[in-house]
Structures
1.
Amino acid sequence: MTLKKPFNKVEGLLSTRKEIEKEIEGIQKSCQHPTKSIKNVRERLDSQIMVIRYVCDECSLTIGIPNNNELQKYLKQ
């Protein structure tokens, strides 16, 4: 008979992260995205590259790409 070791700290944190990511996903799926802002965001979660995108003010989901005029106006601020 082998006893299963209790979670180490990293395993516990990874488990918590998965739970949080599922909760965020549920919030973002149910959000109607009533208002949006142009912001710098990471291209992907695992990326260091920043891109300019429309982001929902309520749930922080990336929801679109600004056109050239909107982009130029944002960059002049």
Note: The CA atoms of residues 46 and 74 lie 25 Å apart.
2.
Amino acid sequence: MIRRSAVREYATGSLWVLPGASALVALLVGFAVSHIDVSPGSPLAPLAFQGTADDARTLLSNITSSVITVIALVLGLTVVALQLSSTQFSPRLLRNFLRDRPNQIVLSTFTATFVYAAAGLYTVGLAVGTRIEDFPRLAVSGALVLMFASLAMVVYFADHLAHSIQVDAIGKRVEHDTLAVVHGRMGIVEDTAPTPPPWSVPLTAAKSGYLQTVHPELLLPLATEHHVHIRLRVRVGEHIVAGTTLGWVWTATPDDPVPDPAVFRHALDSSVRVGFERTQEQDAAFGIRQLVDMACKGLSPAVNDPYTAVQAVDHLSVIFCALAVRPLGDYVASDPTGTGVVIVPARRFGDYLATMCGLIRRYGSSEPTLSVALLRLLANCAAVLPDDPARWAALAEQADLILDDAMRETAQPADTLAVQAAARDLQATITAHRPTRRE
């Protein structure tokens, strides 16, 4: 399972996989269509190419030369878009552009057209070095169809590229992908989970990298077989170094022998994927980090665009309102008898909130508009937040920090009036909720 998911993640994030597959399909389709015999009385006769073999070769040659030029243009524009998104917003957004399906489809159409037409030049009008007039006319018509499809894709690509590099389009894409992770969390979530006792045995990491995905259900059968608890040390999205502790395994009592850690090596490799980069498959914090990067870039002196930061905070509001009502905590997978347990540590609501608010607040505390946007995010969360004392405490803590930093860093006291008003409204909501929580 983990290898299939790794291959799927690599394929969706690679710009060459779909175009490569389209080239193979174009060759197969061209081979099949070239064997269709179109007689003069056939219903397909009006669709067949009506010119001579020389006309067909000239047409195919012009299509190949034109399409290869367009491919170079498309790749050049794609590189410009990647460079813009990296420098203007965040280098962590490059993967989103590579995963963009319309870009892959456009490049696949051009690749298929080039391969189809170039393969036709191999046979049309020639047979063992001799010129002939008998050639697959319907296949040449197929090249014309692909040429018009490529023309449509040029227009579509220009429109799509112009929209895809807009701030709101980038933020909406990150928001959508992050919400998919938030609403598709794995395992059983618990606020508290067993911690490693003194007699636990460490399990070391086999390779260095970022913890991309964890599937505790694949590790659970082995834990149940040996009647042990297994707990990972790092959370999804965090970095691990080869040879350091990846997790621990322990038995119910110190008197029970702990199996050799080598027993769990294959199961760990099958259930835990470590890669050279973070992915968003199970890592909602990575999507939050991308939007935080956009906000911080907008606040940097080189860009000086606070409204971009406000737009990023608006997209973060949607994500945090979804997180506010989700059960967050360690992922715990166990068998019905409780003899085997696998625990994967995870972030709490306060952890997500501190990571997001902390960075943006420190960069933009001197801009009251951004402070108001952050307080508006917290107010939106307060409107949906359940009766969880820890979450309400985290909300109140961040509200106090935002107000304190804004009051200290803003040069003109009059500019902080809107920040103070938003903070008062939020504090009133928090205060009104606390008596309800104590009942």
Note: The two ends are 47 Å apart (CA to CA).
